[in-house]
Design goal:
mainly alpha, 52% helix
Length: 126
Amino acid sequence: MINPYLIFGNIVWTANYDTRMQCLVLLQKKAIRVIARDKYLHVAHTQPRFREFNIMKFESINIYLTGIFVYKDQNNHLPKMFLNYIVKITDKHDHYTRYVTSMGLSVKYCRTNYRGFSLFIRGYKI
């Protein structure tokens, strides 16, 4: 019941500081404790329960969905408004650069954290 709410629009509204998303991480941990009928203890970790029930953590959901977006962008499976949202270095430069062999994606400059949280910066990092 909770997972669809964590997935819907995840790559858009998680573009924020980790401390602001911490409440959702804690909510997911509380939910898994309720499912497992565990008591809340400071020493009780939820990591084994996530593995036991095959549930992705909130941070992993974000990385997974961002990776899918980058894959779809690079393979032209997105609407035209997202065409070339993340640019390859080979499309940017006609000559050989050392950077082509490492990642293959062009990094956009970001001076502020607001831009650093955007999808094309996070997509490159992921």
